[in-house]
Amino acid sequence: xxxxDLRATPVAIADPPLRSAFGxxxxxxxxxxxxxxxxxxxxxxxxxxxGDAPLRALDAARALVxxxxxxxxxxxxxxxxxxRRPAEERPWEARGFAAPALFSAIEVACLDAIxxxxxxxxCDLLGGRVRDxxxxxxxxxxxHAGDDEWGEVMSAEALVGEARQMRERYGFGSLKxxxxxxxxxxxxAAMRALREAFGPSVPLRLDPNAAWSxxxxxxxxxxxxxxxxxLEDPTPGLDGxxxxxxxxxxxxxxxxxxxxxxxxxxxxxxxxxxxxxxxHHMWGGMRATVELGRLxxxxxxxxSMHSNSHLGISxxxxxxxxxxVPELTYACxxxxxxxxxxxxxGGKLRFHDGALxxxxxxxxGVELDRDALARLHxxxxxxxxxxxxxxxxxxxxxxxxxxxxxxx
Amino acid sequence: xxxxDLRATPVAIADPPLRSAFGxxxxxxxxxxxxxxxxxxxxxxxxxxxGDAPLRALDAARALVxxxxxxxxxxxxxxxxxxRRPAEERPWEARGFAAPALFSAIEVACLDAIxxxxxxxxCDLLGGRVRDxxxxxxxxxxxHAGDDEWGEVMSAEALVGEARQMRERYGFGSLKxxxxxxxxxxxxAAMRALREAFGPSVPLRLDPNAAWSxxxxxxxxxxxxxxxxxLEDPTPGLDGxxxxxxxxxxxxxxxxxxxxxxxxxxxxxxxxxxxxxxxHHMWGGMRATVELGRLxxxxxxxxSMHSNSHLGISxxxxxxxxxxVPELTYACxxxxxxxxxxxxxGGKLRFHDGALxxxxxxxxGVELDRDALARLHxxxxxxxxxxxxxxxxxxxxxxxxxxxxxxx
Lengths: 408, 408
Description:
Enolase-like, domain 1, alpha/beta, homodimer, 408 residues
């Protein structure tokens, strides 16, 4: 099954003014919809990061992909591998969009095509599902008031309200809070308010995105013992995390200091983290995520799943890969409830009791809505956003603002 | 594609009187031919270890396999995983044939079936080949005279003759010697004779199967610096190997102290070895071997491939998996030239310049010869061999014989 074309369509999707340690989400999040045509008539789709860098990378890689057998992608992975060539021979490399991300977009689209051709769901191509439904967590954000129905959420009380609404609408059984926004002790109070409101049967997580110092992280880990399921990236770097981990009664998770396979040996040696957040977009694809699961099990690490603002194609892919990774025992993160736009037919995928069933049907189990794609692409063309910059967005309302990086 | 039946047929295949540190090969090596029938008419085959234990295990697992979708095996792997149930609930567990070996036999047969159904070679189901031909090494043995054309090989000179013949017939570009048989210094002399005879362009390996002490291993590693590509399992255990590795100028490889994923963390921490010998039969299957490749790359370990006495189904599977693992950069071991029997149609697979092309055609690319299978099964029934016991075989000619285990 030869790939006859590779298309990348950039889109801009509405995004509420969500806060994080980095700053503020812009009114639009950028994504790229990838399609591979094949000589057997099926078309495979994928969704990846947005903006200039992925577009440049996908365009530069086009010649490497066209003509290739969709079943034979490992050689492409080897070719794209940054370590094997000098930089001038790697035109597909782009800041913020490394070879694993590029490979992932191509792999997901090819697996979708193979699934469509063989009539099998993508998770079957990865060894088969170990669960039929994937539990996701509510992803709670502090946020500014904006053109959305959620209003301003900048207090513990408002966060509890947001959580209540998320649970009512989607049935999420776990709550993750994007922290690093309020002064640390106020975030402790917010987590306690969530525990108070929902009780111990609802696991809670907090992710300050490395805004805190080692001392603050350690103190808060002790204070929140018994309250948090895990604490994600309280402080920057493997060494800082290792210092916190040494005394923390709460498992530490990461999506910042371990974001690629090559970070794992040092993380294991230093005992920096207990849980790695997988993300097939970032870690090199769906097969790579299965491999990450094995590796984590072997080295005694837990596996959870990370998310960025995304549409239904990414959500379907996340669901398939989560179904195929036995080690992924935590509810997965997803920004999906925050996105009102969609590029798949039938509207947004629906959570039941906080979980998403593996989409039935072949491939990823979703169909591209070409009208919606055209609309969201037009919106991309109409905005001048070409990369994500939460700092710049935040400075529009607070010119002196700068992110906390391990100093709070 | 549902599995409708699982059949295991034990066979006994002629085996020459090959020597190793454990003793002497019996006149027959035992293997098991596994078949899965499916409701789509295709039958998948696999080959695994022989004798009572695999038969018992495969029989006990039959109920777990029948009715299962051949695409959905990861849940079976999880179910078979020894760590998850008390021993009395694991009737498929058998000494010398652990859950990963059992799962591997089932997985290979199912992947063969999927490949036949979809018209794809098995390596395409693993991500695709990174090489079209798999280099194998000549597997040189010291041996007794027997009912074979090789004669007695118990000296350096005879070993050079054996190597010459292996190279002439099959074109092997690498030479592996099963050591631990002659007094260590005589094996050093044999390796030097091979180097003398074939020159530095022919990589040499020596595998004393942990017969030597740390002191002997260290001394010989220093003596053979520049002569060996790698030294395999000179001494027992991760700690012993680590002591040798600390001073050895030659990379150490293993198929004895790291034979399962759970051995890797300690091996990495102790720096016991540089190269892990994969074996899909032992490590839990073909996908597991791909995962092992990734894990080894991440942790800076090289990957080679181990072999036991085997037929063409195993060789085909080894070739497919080797094609799909980028990290497998060493010529693979194979006992295949020592086996005169075969269970596939068309006779024995043929090496070209020491390499085997990935078999064309769907699945593993080999067809079971049912007459040959019946003959070799009859031979199994006619012998009382039910497990491999090289010590007992050796004692038939030398009643006082006992293996060297780290004491030579």
